Amino acid sequence: MASRTRAKEDLNLNHTVQRQFDKAARHVKLPSGLLEQIKVCSNVYYVQFPVKIGRNYKIFEAWRAEHSHHKKPLKGGIRYSSMVTQDEVMALAALMTYKCAIVNVPFGGSKGGIKLRPRDYNAEQLERITRRYTTELIKKDFIGPGTNVPAPDYGTGEREMSWIADTYDTFHPGGLDNLACTTGKPLSQGGIRGRREATGLGVVYALREVFRHQKDMQKLGLSGSLEGKTISIQGLGNVGYHAACTLFEEDGARIVAIGEWDGTIHNPNGIDINKLMKWKKRHKSIQAFPGCKSTPKGTDCLQVNCDILIPSALEAQINRSNMKRIRAKIIAEAANGPTTSEAEDYLNKKGALIVPDIFLNAGGVTVSYFEWSKNLSHMRFGRLEKRVGEFQRSNLLNATEALTGHKYPSKTKETLMRGVGEHDLVYSGLEQTMVDAYNEIRHIRNRNKAIKDLRTAAYVSAIKKVGTTYLELGIFP
Ligand code: NAD
After folding, report:
1. Helix spans in 250-288 (H)
2. What is the position in ligand 1's atom list of the atom closest to the CA of 315?
């Protein structure tokens, strides 16, 4: 009898994104050529450049993909990883287009990457690599406040954005809007309060909204708020840490497992995230954190018993090899593309709720949009109105005290009087954006019986918006 071998699972993120797109496009009435235009990546810049490392020269491979120019500038992070490929960058650029549309951020999608492992280089070498990459982008007009605006992603952060902004400024002396050529910068370099934690915080705002729909939760066998819910997180980097920290400190959730590149730690009674971060800083690892069981694989955290699983590291982590062991009722995709198509089909059939990446991690680009706007306005949000707001509130409180003959406790009065600053405005704008976007995609799913999952609904929302923009613009002959 001929033996039947199963084909290897397709882990290519670009293929996954295209499959997701096709699944949703069936529910959108647009000309097929236009759907194709919304799907394909417009252009990709591939470059190899040399940088002097020690006494030798090393050639680095790098990319910047521009998925869609339906809105400008284009926006998307830059990742440093030894696993970056052109296909991955193209897929991530596509996700950026759809993500921006879902949260109504007026940008096209882009993404960049350099193939390197940051841990292999010191800060000085990374600075040289980053500056050289930026000059390559400048040469081809792949960066600029009105054309293409990078941000941090896996393996990059404020420091890299600062180097990029400075390099761009050097090549464009006197450019008033130069600082808007990147987002995710340090505050002192034109950054915005709240950007650092924006993606993780956006994940939490979204999850709070998910839990507000109690009927949806009942179907999963869950009730109440995030308080006491058990959570496992893969990746304690920018996104994972800020999500974990807020869930632990503000929502009273129980973080039962964390997975990192060198293993997983597990404690069913909950992990103190603040103490863990101090441990991670001191030991450069989460392994052997007191009170936890340590196992050697970062993927072990995906299989622990928990209510919510938050993959916030890399793509294709939830796949054929482990999908049957995933026990979480909610998979909150903080990372880009963490679930393969096969695993998604399996988990959907099993009744799990997948909150998709193209919506869930859009908090970063939302606050990046605020930062870009701030850079173009050259003024901190709230600077003009904070004091006048305090003055008006003070008058109102004094008037009510005079009318009622009762005094507010001084602490209450102080809180009520406090003016609105940049942090408040950013958090408020971010929360409203995540809440509105969630309700929009949930509504699309609930209204159309043929749409069964939130990801398809999110794509439908994005495709319709991008399609409308193209139709209204007209295609240049
Ligand atoms: P980061 O580099 O700050 O953190 C990634 C973390 O994952 C690190 O702590 C790293 O040690 C850990 N990690 C690496 N390999 C791992 C493995 N095999 N198993 C478990 N953990 C591993 O990156 P980030 O900015 O937090 O991005 C994480 C994910 O979120 C990526 O998919 C990224 O595309 C996505 N994302 C990030 C942002 C943002 O604003 N930074 C926005 C949207 C989406």
Report:
1. 273-283
2. 32
Instruction: Give every CB contact of residue 229 below 8 A, 6+ residues apart in sequence.
Output: 222, 253, 254, 307, 308
Q: Note if the pTM is more than 0.85.
A: yes
Query: CA 196 to CA 188: how far, in whole Å?
Result: 13
pLDDT tier at 168, thresholds 50, 70, 90: very high
Ligand 1 near 239 CB (within 6 A) = yes
Q: Return the domain boundaries, the chain.
A: 44-189, 192-385+420-477
Q: Does ligand 1 have an atom closer than 6 angstroms to the CB of 297?
A: no
Model confidence pLDDT, tens digit, residues 92-144: 999 999 999 999 999 999 999 999 999 999 999 999 999 999 999 999 999 99
Ligand 1 pocket test: pick from 238, 266, 360 the residue with the most ligand atoms within 8 Å of its Cβ: 238
Structure tokens at 47: 């470059």
CB distance 194 to ligand 1 below 6 Å: no
Is there a shared CATH topology between the 44-189 domain and the 192-385+420-477 domain? yes
- Please, are residues 21 and 459 in contact by the beta-carbon 8 Å criterion? yes
- Say how far apart CA 444 and CA 449 lie, in whole Å: 9
Confidence of residue 474 (pLDDT cuts 50, 70, 90): confident
Length of the chain: 477
Measured on CA atoms in the order 6, 12, 14, 17, is the torsion positive or negative?
Answer: positive
111 is catalytic: yes
How far is ligand 1, taken at its centre, from the CA of residue 425, in Å?
Answer: 26
Domain 192-385+420-477 in this protein, CATH class = alpha beta
The dihedral over CA atoms of 221, 222, 228, 234, expressed in degrees to the nearest 10, equals 80
Select 44-189's CATH number: 3.40.50.10860, 3.30.300.30, 3.30.1780.10, 3.40.50.2300. Answer: 3.40.50.10860
Tell me if residue 259 falls in helix, strand or coil.
strand
Q: Pick the catalytic residue from 75, 111, 329, 465.
A: 111
Q: Whose CA is nearest to atom 32 of ligand 1?
A: 335
Q: Where does the pLDDT of residue 476 fall: very low under 50, low under 70, confident under 90, or very high at 90 and above?
A: low
User: Per-residue pLDDT for 475 more than 90?
Assistant: no
Those residues whose C-beta lies under 8 Å from the C-beta of residue 31, and which sit 6 or more positions away, are none
Q: How far is the CA of 238 from the centre of ligand 1 (A)?
A: 7
Encoded amino acid at 128, one letter = R
Ligand 1 centre to CA of 300 (Å) is 17
